[in-house]
Design goal:
Low-confidence stretches: none
Strand content: 5-15%
Helix content: 55-70%
Distance between the termini: 209 Å
Shape: elongated
Number of helices: 20
Radius of gyration: 55 Å
Number of strands: 12
Strand order of the largest sheet: 2-1-5-4-3
Mean pLDDT: 88
């Protein structure tokens, strides 16, 4: 029994050992594909994408292994394709990004190249961007000085007169709130240094999904263009020379004021005396001075609300609302009085003035204007002779103020010329004409400066040329008046010489008008005996004139002169 038990135990142990060995051998053989599959799966999961499991048997494990391998192949293929796709997509993104950067730079270049200032704002009015022109116009050096700042408080906070502009008044912010495009050209923007400029701006709200997300503002400095426009508007209604209103404005104002509430309406029509003379003799600059002086007097005499207009070359009209005829007459008297105290180029200010008054609504205002004009021309015609005489006297007085001895010279030459003409037994009209011509013979010297008129030493070439122009100026001046037309030729030629070497025409002998030949001798004698720098005695002057008989002077005139003196 014991032996059997021992043998049994031994056999059982051997059988158990054998069973265990067989178990491990069989288990190893059966589980090895699964273990290998698990290891391959773990390695594949850890990133070894090339890892594959070996299919040892064609059982379930083998099928799973093949399925794993197929899955791994698919995953690898997908991953490889994904990498290519990622590389391709990355390249596309890089290209798109580069294009966006290029477009952004191009957009920035365009923004910075525009003359208009441009800036963006969010819905709260804070600056999001600004271009170079914006910074330059506003006086900033970098956009960081504006970015994030409220643009209303930065550049749009006050009006032109310095009074604050409330947020509620800001049309830029209102455009953002309402989502509407606006254009403004009557406001100002303020620079960094505290100065302002006239601005024209546009606001364009930015929309996203139907909502306003901000705005873009474009603006320009219109200070100069506004000045030009104001100048154009001013010139449209004002006379460029005098600054008073022009005919266009007057005609519009005449229609506007022609209302019952403005009755009685008086119209004063005036014509400046001596404008043509001033322009022809002294130049248009002096003529403009005469017009300016006249308009200044009219402005000084009239009320602030009265309309003064220059409607022609030398014609002015004054429109007086609520002014009776008697008051208009008083205004005319003040105009005459004020003008008489003024003087331009030796010509006293004067004006032919008349008026008419609309009393009832039925009267035609244009008829009143025509009546005033017609009356003015009547006054001008009646006063013409006195006006011309006054102008000539005024010119001579101005000449005598420059050089007092010219007065005595004019009187002496006139008297001597008269005596010579009488001695030559000329007709009475010629005696009178030569006396007048002798008196006015040097009136053309009015254009000469005081220095030349009073110079005792020898004149320079330029001064001599100016001096020799006075006969021509005198001729032009005397031709402007009917009363002196018949002596103008004698005044023009009184410096001609018998031998043809005189001026201004170089006439010779009897080509020279007889009256001019008489004045030439009379003037020379007075010049010789009264010249300050080299005064001659009577005998020396007679001798010098006698010596030049037949060369400088007409021998017949000299003979008559010698018989008298």
């Amino acid at each position: 029994v014991l032996e059997n038990i021992v043998y049994t135990i031994i056999l059982a142990a051997i059988a158990l050992a054998v069973a265990i060995i067989v178990y491990f051998v069989l288990a190893s053989k059966l589980l090895k594909p699964a273990t290998h599959l698990i290891e391959s799966t773990e390695r594949f999961a850890n990133g070894e994408l090339s890892q594959r499991a070996k299919a040892i048997r064609n059982d379930e494990i083998g099928k799973i292994t093949n399925a794993f391998n197929n899955m791994a192949d698919t995953i690898c293929e997908l991953i490889n394709n994904l990498e290519d796709k990622v590389k391709e997509r990355t390249l596309e993104l890089e290209e798109a990004s580069e294009m966006m950067r290029s477009n952004r730079n191009q957009l920035r270049l365009i923004l910075d190249s525009t003359a208009e200032g441009i800036y963006g704002m969010d819905t709260k009015g804070n600056c999001t961007f600004s271009n170079t022109s914006c910074l330059e116009l506003l006086g900033y050096s970098h956009q960081n000085e504006l970015n994030g700042r409220n643009m209303h408080y930065q550049i749009h906070h006050s009006k032109r007169d310095g009074t604050p502009m409330l947020i509620s008044e800001c049309r830029i912010l209102k455009a953002i709130q309402e989502g509407t495009i606006i254009h403004v050209d009557d406001e100002v923007f303020w620079r960094k240094d505290g100065t302002y400029f006239d601005v024209e701006y546009n606001v364009y709200p930015q929309m996203k999904d139907g909502n306003v997300v901000g705005a873009v503002v474009t603006f320009t400095d219109i200070t100069e263009s506004k000045k030009i426009q104001e100048q154009i508007n001013y010139l449209s209604y004002h006379d460029t020379v005098t600054g008073v209103y022009n005919r266009r404005f007057f005609e519009d104002e005449l229609k506007r004021i022609d209302q019952k509430k403005n009755l009685p309406i008086s119209i004063i029509y005036g014509d400046v005396n001596g404008l043509k003379l001033t322009n022809d003799i002294f130049g248009h600059e002096k003529g403009d001075e005469l017009l300016k002086m006249t308009s200044a007097v009219l402005t000084r005499v009239c009320r602030d609300g009265d309309t003064i207009a220059r409607i022609g070359g030398d014609e002015f009209v004054i429109l007086l609302a609520n002014t009776p005829a008697q008051d208009a007459k008083m205004v005319i008297q003040r105009i005459r009085k004020e003008l008489s105290t003024e003087k331009i180029a030796g010509i006293k200010g004067s004006m032919a003035v008349a008026s008419d008054t609309k009393i009832t609504p039925e009267q035609d205002i244009k008829v009143i204007l025509n009546n005033a004009e017609t009356e003015m021309y009547k006054v001008k015609t009646l006063e013409k002779k006195n006006i011309h005489s006054g102008m000539l006297e005024g010119i001579l007085d101005s000449l005598y103020e420059k050089n007092p001895r010219e007065r005595l010279h004019s009187i002496n030459v006139a008297q001597m010329s008269e005596k010579i003409a009488m001695k030559m037994k000329l007709p009475e009209p010629d005696v009178r004409r030569v006396k007048d011509a002798g008196f006015y013979h040097d009136i053309g010297k009015i254009i000469l400066s005081k220095d030349i008129l009073n110079k005792e030493s020898k004149l320079t070439g330029e001064e001599k040329e100016e001096m020799e122009s006075h006969p021509l100026i005198g001729f032009r001046l005397l031709n402007l008046f009917k009363e002196t037309l018949d002596i103008a030729e004698a005044v023009l030629t009184h410096h001609e010489r018998w031998d043809g070497t005189g001026y201004p025409k170089g006439l010779k002998g009897e080509e020279i008008p007889e009256l001019a030949r008489i004045i030439a001798v009379a003037e020379s004698y007075d010049f010789l005996v009264n010249r300050m720098d080299s005064r001659r005695t009577h005998e020396e002057a007679i001798e010098e004139i006698s010596a030049q008989s037949g060369t400088k002077y007409d021998p017949l005139v000299v003979d008559s002169f010698l018989k008298i003196f």
